[in-house]
Specification:
- The strands form three sheets. Strands 3-4-5-6 form a four-stranded antiparallel sheet, with no helix packed on it. Strands 1-2 form a two-stranded antiparallel ribbon. The chain has a two-stranded antiparallel sheet with strand order 7-8.
- By secondary structure, it is mostly beta strands.
- Strand 1 and strand 2 form a beta hairpin.
Length: 84
């Protein structure tokens, strides 16, 4: 399945993200990509709400437990500062 958004085109790749523990259910409220093409997935999970993947979908790390409570979005600035 391919999605077009403006001049960008995206393709769904089932199983791309290799989660360390497959979440039963997760509410994703934001996605962002840094200057090294790492994908940051922001969820409404209380446990490690930010999960980071490399361009191949490999899990790198997660963080944010106790820092992020009611997430609504994520943004990464040009200097790779992350705003949630």
């Amino acid at each position: 399945m391919i999605f077009d958004i403006g001049e960008h085109q995206y393709q769904l790749v089932e199983g791309w993200a290799k989660w360390p523990e497959r979440p039963k259910t997760v509410v994703i409220c934001g996605l962002a990509v840094d200057s090294r093409d790492r994908l940051y997935v922001l969820t409404r999970s209380k446990r490690q709400p930010v999960t980071v993947f490399d361009p191949e979908g490999n899990f790198l790390h997660s963080w944010g437990e106790g820092l992020i409570k009611e997430a609504h979005g994520i943004y990464i600035a040009k200097d790779d500062c992350i705003y949630c």
